[in-house]
Design goal:
Pfam families: FAD_binding_4, MurB_C. This protein is an alpha+beta fold and 334 residues long. 25% of the residues lie in helices and 22% in strands. The chain has a five-stranded mixed sheet with strand order 1-2-3-6-4, with helices on one face. The chain binds flavin-adenine dinucleotide.
Length: 334
């Protein structure tokens, strides 16, 4: 597919910058009191992150904020900077393992960055970072815009998909992305093309950087039959539900596939680990590249199971499995 460049069409409202001096004094006063950035946006202390991850594990964020406006996003970065705090970016948390000890600094959630624009003529779709990827997939199909049917079973946000190069059923984010707008920690924005994002399998130049994707534009093919596209989307959705264990909390595939010949799930299965359990975490019977939280897992159980699977696969196959899941926080003593 030929990718064309077009500046993003959806502007995140509220571009006025909050004063750095006022943020700095609020940071100095901060202590453990909530900090109000605007009427609608509060930086809160000690917020449990378990509810914000698909594994349903993880300790508290030292500070947590979910901005809705662009100025609030900028102010959140400024506040962390003024307080000399590290920043962690959180989408839907569907590819994260967060330590039971939680995360120091400020966690910025993108879940309220919700806006979208579908152009049925050109096929261009511009969406905010916090839009759920499955929702965008359904909406595109309903409008006869072909391209994102593969994305329906991936329970992340648009921002997370851009960073992870999320993909399924032979499609991936890089194939359809025209550009992504990012907010840099110094408060400036940049528009990045797929070439600048250096996309590879489940990987992009944004991983390990604190550049916040605010919105992304995709080029889809207009003029398709919405009924046929919706049927194909449903088919992908149902296929995922029947072949993968969606009934318990997980992060989807834990490891990257080492190659097309060696799938991580097959290697783990051959090492005899299906059903293997540590604490409340279990390697799924249905798909060995999934680890399930069977109800009472700690993040440390999942972490130990990841290390155990890596060790066993290395013993059997002399292959090092690399986690796809992003592991955040302190697991040293786990
Ligand atoms: C049941 C299940 C099935 C899954 N199936 C698939 C699949 O088929 N294919 C696939 O590719 N993945 C799959 N996943 C994994 C996951 O859904 C994807 O990796 C998804 O793209 C992560 O998006 P997220 O919003 O949840 O990101 P998060 O998990 O919140 O974050 C992932 C990384 O992206 C960063 N990040 C998130 N948002 C932003 C932003 N706006 N700006 C900058 N950085 C950001 C985070 O800091 C973190 O490093 C599955 C997960 C589950 C639970």
């Amino acid at each position: 597919m030929t990718l064309s460049y077009d500046p993003p069409k959806v502007a995140i409202p509220g571009t006025a910058r909050l004063s750095f001096e006022s943020l700095k004094s609020s940071a100095q006063r901060a202590g453990t009191q909530p900090i109000r950035l605007s009427n609608d946006c509060i930086i809160k202390p000690q917020v449990s992150l378990a509810a914000f991850t698909s594994f349903r594990v993880g300790g508290p964020a030292q500070w947590y904020v979910a901005p809705k406006q662009f100025a609030e996003l900028q102010a959140s970065f400024d506040w962390a900077h003024a307080h000399d705090l590290p920043v962690t970016l959180l989408g839907a948390g569907s590819n994260l393992l967060i330590s039971d000890r939680g995360l120091p600094g400020l966690v910025i959630s993108t879940r309220r960055l919700r806006q979208n624009q579908f152009d049925p003529e050109s096929g261009q779709v511009t969406v905010g970072a916090g839009e759920p990827l499955p929702l965008v997939s359904w909406h595109a199909a309903e409008r006869g815009l072909q391209g994102l049917e593969w994305a329906v079973g991936i329970p992340g946000t648009i921002g997370g998909a851009v960073v992870m190069n999320a993909g399924a059923h032979g499609g991936c984010t890089a194939d359809y992305l025209v550009n992504a707008q990012v907010l840099l920690p110094d408060g400036t924005t940049k528009i990045l093309t797929p070439q600048e994002l250096h996309y590879r399998y489940r990987s992009s130049a944004l991983q390990g950087k604190n550049w916040l994707v605010t919105q992304a534009t995709f080029q889809l093919q207009p003029g398709f039959d919405p009924v046929a596209l919706t049927a194909l989307t449903s088919q992908h959705y149902n296929h995922r539900r029947t072949t993968q264990p969606y009934h318990l909390p997980s992060c989807g595939s834990v490891f990257r596939n080492p190659s097309n010949d060696y799938k991580a799930g097959w290697l783990i299965e051959q090492a005899g680990l299906k059903g293997y359990q540590i604490g409340g975490a279990q390697i799924a019977e249905r798909h060995a590249n999934f680890i399930l939280n069977c109800g009472n897992a700690m993040a440390s159980d999942i972490f130990r199971l990841i290390r155990h699977a890596q060790h066993q696969v290395e013993q059997h196959w002399s292959l090092q499995l690399v986690p796809e899941v992003r592991i955040l926080g302190d697991f040293q003593a786990a």
